[in-house]
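User: I'm preparing a small set of examples for a lab meeting where we compare how different chains pack in three dimensions. I only have the primary sequence for this one, and I'd like the structure in token form so I can line it up with the others. Please keep the answer compact; I'll paste it straight into my notes.
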Amino acid sequence: MRETIGFIGLGTMGLPMVKNLLAKGFTVHVVSRSRGPIENAVSLGAIEANNPRDLAEKVDILLTCLPLPATIEEVYFGENGITSADLTGKLVLDHSTVSPMLNEKAASAIQEKGGSFMDAPISGGPMGAIAGTLAIMCGGDKQDFERAKPALEAMGTNLFYMGAIGNGSIAKLMNNYIIGVHTAALAETFVLATKAGVDTAELYKVLEASTGDSKMLHRIVPLVHERDFDARFSNKLLYKDMRIAGELAKAYDVEMPVNSLAEQMYQQANEKYPTEDIAALFKLYEEKNNIIVSGKK
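Assistant: Understood. Below is the structure token output for the 297-residue chain.
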């Protein structure tokens, strides 16, 4: 018999993840701040709970997908939060991108209430969430990973067991660190090429066929050429991740000067274009140089 699933956080990623769980036949209870996503999920068969505590008491496995550390603090430790419930025998997984230290805090509190915890951050963006092809990086007990697999397989095709609690979050932070640095490098590259008179549509083809090819090249540059900065992954969220990666480096006494420089650029992007896509970082470089990377001569 399949275990009952709870899901908190029906945002850009969470709602399609819930839809995939429902499509695979899971019973899913949901909580979210916004009525629209709740009503959407309920129309497809999800069951609305009153609050995180109420949800935790009704399910076997509880998944959270939340935007910020402060949201985690509220949902896990606030009034009627997850840890106010009896969690005996329950498994809680957090798909958010946060620090391993916050993972450890959540794990300790959940274990005290009789439950188990895994950090399980996700990668693949909204398209991956919709298609059910997410990469999911898990830290925690191996038996808990095996227990969660049926639910995880409904949402992702690339499941990784990373070892101890917090290791999944470290893997995700390193992924997003590379995203931030790579996007900054692409912005500098295409702004310089434009300033020098190079057709950046042709440059894109050159890089695609050369060792400069990458997923981020294909993720970012077409959006910039099309001037499409609607958020798939916002500057606000990537700046948060870059900042956490920097804090992690300090905690382990590792120098990361490239991360520091990219973090500064995303701080500026967050101040000016917080709700736009990370591709909007290009606009900062364009404004400084009085040019537009249009992809057209």
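A couple of notes for your slides: Residues 199 and 297 are 6 Å apart (CA to CA). Residues 5-164 form a domain with the Rossmann fold fold (CATH 3.40.50.720).

User: Perfect, thanks.
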